[in-house]
What we know:
- By secondary structure, the chain is an alpha+beta fold.
- It folds into 2 domains: 3-150, NADH Oxidase; 161-248, no CATH class.
- The chain has helices at residues 3-9, 23-34, 53-62, 82-115, 128-135, 164-167, 180-183, 187-205, 207-260; strands at residues 45-50, 74-80, 119-120, 142-150.
- Helix 8 packs antiparallel against helix 9.
- The site of flavin mononucleotide has 12 residues, from loops.
Amino acid sequence: xxxxxxxxxxxxxxxFNDLPVEWEKVGNILRAAQLAPSSGNVQDCKFVVVTDxxxxxxxxxxxxxxxxxxxxxxxxxxxxxxxxxxxxxxxxGEKLYTIQxxxxxxxxxxxxxxDQGLASCWVGAFDESMVNSVTGAPDSARPQAIIPIxxxxxxxxxxxxxxxxxxVYINSWKGKIVxxxxxxxxxxxxxxxxxxxxxxAAVEKGPTVGLELADKSKAxxxxxxxxxxxxxxxxxxxxxxxxxxxxxxEEEVLEDTEKFD
Length: 261
Ligand SMILES: Cc1cc2nc3c(=O)[nH]c(=O)nc-3n(C[C@H](O)[C@H](O)[C@H](O)COP(=O)(O)O)c2cc1C
């Protein structure tokens, strides 16, 4: 699966069917966790894999009675051991890096599961000491996430996200990018917004204003189409240039070969 496709496809899933998870896949997931970045490569995470039915039920109970968790055939608990990170980086290491290190491992786990057709969920609401009493972990080890993994019994839709334009600043705090969707080539979003504006205006301010806006939108769309055309043309030219250069390179090699002959 392509990386971006995998990122888009990942969904928090809370319904699992009875199919068991292949150990090979669990191994790949753990390898992905192991490969996550960590501050100074301190690698302060540990992973407890729970398959035992009674323990899974106990973990669901520890997770503030989120009983659906127990249905997942495999549960990975991501632990951090803050001591080494604290030794290297002091308070910042203990309070921030350990959490970030485990978050990086957690996300890798979720993506590796998705990539292999598995469903998962990042569960953060739980009683830490109850989790440790299920796994037998010492107090010095801090459970950061419980991740139930299995085959999905549902197709969850993506919960709504904030608009990119409200999340991204350029160069300084609150530095808004005007027309961010246009900038990032997300033309479908631009078109959707324009149509929505026209529809809302037609309802709120009467059909005349709505129609005016719709005309404006059409003019805007024409401009966008021209922009797309320009972009495609310049991409085509760039490709042709690259191809020319490539062929040129081959000719050089041929010339060299001739010399050797
Ligand atoms: C730190 C953290 C804690 C979470 N804890 C829980 C949880 O206890 N139970 C749960 O059902 N989902 C939990 N989630 C999942 C979020 O609800 C979910 O990621 C969010 O609604 C977005 O949905 P998506 O993951 O499908 O994109 C948690 C997610 C994060 C990042």
